[in-house]
Amino acid sequence: MASLDSAQLAQALVDFSVHGSFPEDKISSLPIDAESIPIAIKALADAKAKLQVCALANYALHVC
């Protein structure tokens, strides 16, 4: 049986966090490999950091 790899899990977490979108059923129904969770959480933290940097840059430049 196939499982959700870390890249798929990371993308699903980021997409949900940023856009509120859920992955397709063929992705969300796959089991998650325990080794994928830390990698996916790091990807989510990296995306958060990038968003914070962009928000600060936009604020500093008064760009909307």
Give a quick summary of the entry.
The protein has 64 residues and is mainly alpha-helical. The protein has helices at residues 6-19, 25-28, 36-61.
Q: What is the structural class?
A: mainly alpha
* Shape annotation: elongated
Number of helices: 3
Largest sheet: none
Helicity level? 55-70%
Subunit organisation of the chains: single chain
Strand content: under 5%
Write down the secondary-structure element order: HHH
Mean pLDDT: 82
How many domains? The number is 1
DSSP summary, beta strand count: 0
Q: Describe it for me?
A:
The protein is an all-alpha fold. It has one domain. It has three helices and no strands. The protein has helices spanning 6-19, 25-28, 36-61. Helix 1 (6-19) runs parallel beside helix 3. The protein is elongated, with a radius of gyration of 15 Å. The N and C termini lie far apart (47 Å).
Features:
single chain, elongated
Layout of secondary structure:
Elements lengths: L5 H14 L5 H4 L7 H26 L3
Helix pairs in contact: 1-3
